[in-house]
Write a structure and sequence with these properties.
- The chain has twelve helices and seven strands.
- With about 325 residues, the chain is of the alpha/beta class.
- The chain has one domain (about 5-240): TIM Barrel, CATH 3.20.20.70.
- The strands form two sheets. The protein has a five-stranded parallel β-sheet, covered by helices on one side.
Amino acid sequence: MTIPAASASFHGIWPALLTPLKPDLGIDLHRFGLHARALVHAKGCGGVVPFGTTGEGPAFSVDERRDAVDALVGEGVPAAQILVSTSCAALPDTLALTRHALAIGAHGCLMMPPFFLKGGAHQVTDQGVIDSYRQVIDGAADDRLRLYLYHIPQVSGVGLSRKVVETLKRLYPQTIVGIKDSSGDTAHTLALADAFNETLMVTAGHEPDLPELARRGSTGAVSGLANFMPHVVQRLAGRPDAPNTPHDVSRVRLLLAMLGPYALTPALKGIMAALSGEPGWLRVRAPLVALTTDQMHTLQHALKPIALDLDVD
């Protein structure tokens, strides 16, 4: 595999950051920065990804997201180790966040297609998706822009077809450097890797797929579980044929199955609250709903066989 030169610095695990909130549901900038800094400096993660779907990105304003990314840098997270999710329903907002990421020297931007205007027989077309990305790339007009496409159709309702990926890579060969497939569809993820791994960094959001992606040449991953088990996820992505890999995969599958009955982000925040002893992690922005006390008790009981440990995992 030939790693794309523009994405050669994407190595290791990049946690899709959960976003801690204050009682007024504003972003807890200090805790946000401490969490990211610990992942990068103490846990050895390659970088961090703020404001993806795991981080409730579309629930926050442009100003909130800019201020929070600035806070990460202020707390000691190198800008070059921040992959900023700039996805918004309105393209001018996406462009504003993309320009800010460029201004601070971020590693790059992660962008899913605009996800609001769709429905019925008038679904978003491939051309509409291509036009959306082109407006942001052309609007930024900056050769430093490194863009990772974000495929998460079960959330956005708008997927990225092979035609879209091929067209954008042809039009912007130095700008389009990777694609994150969070569809959870293993066959789709592996097909993307087979089709594009020579020219794009293909990553997966479904952690059990990481060993097979690594065997096919992938060098890293963006992972929600890496908020609290970065070492495990790093082993899956970096040592796919190690003796303990089947055990790690089994633990991750057990955890994902346990999370099945819950909305994902509130459940991940529940795990963070349980492991850290900081109940503030439970807070979410509407329309998400925080776990109830009963749900937390059930979650904590279900976690016991997995034996998560923030210091080890």
